[in-house]
């Protein structure tokens, strides 16, 4: 074992292998390790310096490099020119041909001469003087327009304002201003007037028939009640009594659509109840 004086001056290898066998190789390797590392580092630095110095020496010997811009010319490398594409021009849309209106012109029929029997009736052949003063055609037209009277059409400008919507003659269900009785009141007043004029028929009383009769009628543009019909009836004289009561209605104030008097159709229910 080492004493204190020997430990102060001993290396790490001497301390590790103190009292151990130093002859089998491990001690020698550890003792020479630092020398080998220093030698390897020196060799690596020498190679690096040689590589860098060799490149610098070669660049110095060659001199400065001259960079020549690349310009492709010749047959193998022709000069590339930009491709110019012509703009696409669409043809204008075809214009529809306007077909002129043909007009009937006074003309005289002139056929080729045919050989026929004496008893066969043929059309009268016009004289040459008549053909000279008329328009020759395949048929004879009378009452048309003289060819000399035809002239170019003159363009005219009509009114550019709209007077109003066209109102047809049909019957309407609903209009801007509905028909009214002279006293007004709307549909309720019309049904009340029909109910007041209706009488319970004796046949319906005898048969015990009661309920509602649905009838339709039209108030025309003159305010008259027309086209009376039963939409859904009960029979036993109730349908006929309903139509009679509707026919007793007075003249209406007619309905109006776009400022014009029009016909309006009504469908009303008329009730018939027996007193219990």
UniProtKB/TrEMBL annotation:
Its annotated compartments are: Cell inner membrane
Establish whether keyword Cell inner membrane is in the entry: yes
Q: Name one GO biological process term.
A: transmembrane transport
Which PANTHER family does the UniProt entry name for this protein?
Answer: PROTEIN TONB (PTHR33446:SF2), PROTEIN TONB-RELATED (PTHR33446)
Task: Tell me which Gene3D superfamilies the record gives.
Answer: 3.30.1150.10
Q: Which residues cross the membrane?
A: 40-61
Q: Which GO terms describe its cellular component?
A: outer membrane-bounded periplasmic space; plasma membrane protein complex
- Segments forming domain TonB C-terminal: 185-276
Tell me which species this is from: Hymenobacter nivis
Q: How does it sit in the membrane?
A: Single-pass membrane protein
Name of the protein: Energy transducer TonB
Q: Which UniProt keywords apply?
A: Cell inner membrane, Cell membrane, Membrane, Protein transport, Transmembrane, Transmembrane helix, Transport
């Amino acid at each position: 074992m080492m004493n204190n004086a020997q430990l102060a001056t001993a290396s790490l290898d001497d301390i590790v292998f103190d009292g151990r066998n130093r002859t089998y190789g491990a001690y020698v390797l550890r003792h020479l390790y630092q020398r080998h590392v220093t030698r390897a580092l020196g060799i690596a630095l020498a190679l690096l310096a040689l590589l860098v110095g060799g490149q610098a020496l070669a660049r110095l010997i060659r001199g400065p490099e001259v960079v020549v811009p690349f310009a492709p010319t010749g047959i193998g490398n022709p000069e590339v020119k930009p491709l110019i594409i012509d703009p696409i021009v669409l043809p204008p849309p075809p214009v529809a041909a306007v077909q002129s209106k043909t007009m009937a012109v006074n003309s005289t029929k002139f056929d080729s001469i045919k050989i026929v029997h004496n008893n066969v009736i043929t059309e009268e052949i016009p004289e040459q003087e008549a053909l000279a003063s008329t328009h020759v055609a395949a048929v004879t037209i009378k009452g048309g327009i003289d060819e000399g009277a035809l002239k170019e059409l003159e363009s005219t400008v009509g009114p550019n304002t709209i007077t109003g919507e066209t109102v047809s003659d049909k019957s309407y269900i609903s209009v801007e201003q509905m028909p009214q009785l002279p006293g007004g009141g709307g549909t309720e007043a019309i049904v009340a007037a029909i109910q007041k004029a209706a009488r319970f028929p004796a046949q319906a009383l005898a048969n015990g028939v009661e309920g509602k009769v649905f009838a339709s009628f039209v108030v025309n543009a003159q305010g008259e009640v027309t086209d009376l019909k039963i939409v859904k009836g009960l029979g036993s004289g109730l349908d006929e009594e309903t139509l009679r009561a509707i026919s007793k209605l007075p003249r209406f104030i007619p309905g109006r659509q776009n400022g014009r008097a029009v016909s309006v159709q009504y469908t009303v229910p008329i009730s018939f109840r027996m007193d219990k």
